[in-house]
UniProtKB/TrEMBL annotation:
The keyword ATP-binding applies. Gene3D superfamilies: ATP-grasp fold, A domain. This is Phosphoenolpyruvate synthase. Keywords: ATP-binding, Kinase, Magnesium, Metal-binding, Nucleotide-binding, Pyruvate, Transferase. Belongs to the PEP-utilizing enzyme family. It catalyses: pyruvate + ATP + H2O = phosphoenolpyruvate + AMP + phosphate + 2 H(+). Pathway: Carbohydrate biosynthesis; gluconeogenesis. Its cofactor is Mg(2+).
Amino acid sequence: MSEMEQAMRGQFVFGMSFVRSQATAASVNVFRIVKHLSEIAPGKYDALFERLKDIQAQIGAVLARQPETVATELVLPLEHVTREMSDQVGSKMAHLGDIMARLNLPVPPGFAITSLAYTRFVRDTGLQEEINRLVQAVGADDHATLLPLCSQIQQMILGAKLPEDVAQAIVESYHALEAKAGKDVRVSLRSSALGEDALGQSFAGQFRSVLNVAEEDLLITYKEIVASKYSPQAVTYRLAKGIPDQDVAMCVGCMAMVPARCGGVVYSRNPLSIRDDEVFVHSAWGLA
């Protein structure tokens, strides 16, 4: 109880794993109290067992709630994506779709594998239940446990089989992309997790992106990016920020590779000095 009181005072950050572990510990301790009372006065406190079971069921129902995805499609073509769909495809792909649809700027063709596809993958295979069990007792500072646990979860994801309709939707979307970008087009697969670039948090560089992916590697690469949600740095960041694991559905963007002459990023001001309002361009030569 003292640990929960400290958490409520804001003395340390915590996530749903802390809430679940504390609820379990409290439930076990209360059961012991009721058991001891029953042993001291046989028959007098038996009604408490049923009452405790009812309370445990109510707490369990609350803790078992999962955020429901609003996505209705497993995959969406990029030209059909807008910024209002960030809760279906993640903010990264939503903004790219918006640039294509509203600003009419050149954007490589592609598609977004939605939060529904991710949810189907982790729930239909039983991965989510097992992941919840594994992460329940780990803390952000428990590095000795965190590293092997993350590796175990990532291997579970890579070894799981995608639901047939999810795999089919990804492959069919690639074939549709071939009609726009050419036969056997190589693609890049990039993370576009829900909340990845939300206000007050940033997962920049914590999730995986893979370039020059061929059709035969699409599905395993998708699973690799989903597995990157459980890299040690990403898990530590979520725990430190108190972000529930279930709130970060891993959407994935798939876009045709561009034979770029050069590439880079433009800063509207100097990122190292707030007093310098000059535009800064950082670039590198491409492979074209």
